[in-house]
Amino acid sequence: MNSYRIPEIAAKYLEYDMIQKHTDLPRFPEFRSRLLYAFLDKHSALAQQSELFTLVTSLVQIGMDTHDMVSVNNDVKEQAESRSRQLKVLAGDYFSSRFYYLLSHAGQIDLVGMLSRGICEVNRLKMNLYLMKKQLKLTADEYIRQMVEVKTQLFLSFSSLLEERFYGIWPEILRLFTRCEVLLQEIIRSETSQHYRESWGFWHVLQWGTKEEKKLLEHEEADQAKLRSIWLKYRVTSQLYQLLDACFKELQEKLQGIQPENLGKELSSIGESFRSYLSGPRATQEI
To answer: What are its GO biological-process terms (predicted)?
Structure first.
């Protein structure tokens, strides 16, 4: 079995001085990348391509995530902000273009079509989610479910390529890992009170808050101190820790008995970072 080294290979496409100096990039899709590599590496026919397939999928995902970071407000007056916005657009295009280049040079034209269809489906899901947000029709639970679907869709494109023994467990394991990932990101967001309109806490308070609290949330420039007090009142961070704990326990149950045994051990190892986060002092206090 080859060792997992996708982030190191991807670094030569991601770590450009101009990008690092003038803008920031989204997180590398570490959990989804490691999962895809682990399953492909057990494939009797595709093991030799596991590194290439995982690399290009990760680059496409980063490209889409980079475009998602571009502000929808086109009225950018500061030069630094304008340059950052432009570089996000160009960087997202560049990362996506590497997917076509690498696969075409490897003669994997069928995979280009498969991932292209996956990209279209991701964009469809994003548009639906955007409309639901715009119309304030989301519940907190639906928000998490929608986010998981958006993040897993590209990687689910590989479902038909995996060996038959993995047909049932691949989507389930991928979604559970990604749900844990989304909840962990929401915890970090709740602890910093940043981008509250794009958070689980926003939809939770909108669902259960008072009329005055809901009105406050609808203001684009809401008072951060008041928001923090609302977050504390509704125990947003605490509830997210509880959701993460429950999701991780469900994941552990699903991983028991997975065959081959070395795959089960590898998947359990990938999930250990969730355990370490849940066993930290802050998590212990919250749960």
So the answer is: menaquinone biosynthetic process
Tens of pLDDT along 65-91?
999 888 766 555 566 677 787 878 888
| Intervals of the chain under pLDDT 70 | 1-2, 72-80, 193-195, 220, 281-285, 287
Q: How far apart are CA 200 and CA 184, in angstroms?
A: 11
Q: Model's pTM, two decimal places?
A: 0.91
Cβ partners under 8 Å of residue 256, min gap 6: 264
Rg (CA), the chain: 20
CA-based end-to-end distance of the chain:
38
Give the E-state strand segments of the chain in sequence order. Answer: none
Tokens of 73: 């407000």
Angle at 21 between CA 16 and CA 26, to 5 degrees: 70
